[in-house]
Amino acid sequence: MKLIQTNQARKHPAKLKLDESLATQAKVMANDLSTSEASCAAATEAWDDFNERTGSFADEHSTL
Question: Can you tell me the mean pLDDT for 6-32?
Fold first, then answer.
């Protein structure tokens, strides 16, 4: 039997119980991921701004 998952599947709330140390680790990881995502977004925006102002470094060295 092949299982197919669709976005239209009904959602059902679920409660999870984690031991305290696992919950703490999850919170640290979630905060780290949020911080990393924000840092990546800021770096990408800065790089895009730089490329817009100065052009791409690779353009000078392209063999195409």
Answer: 84
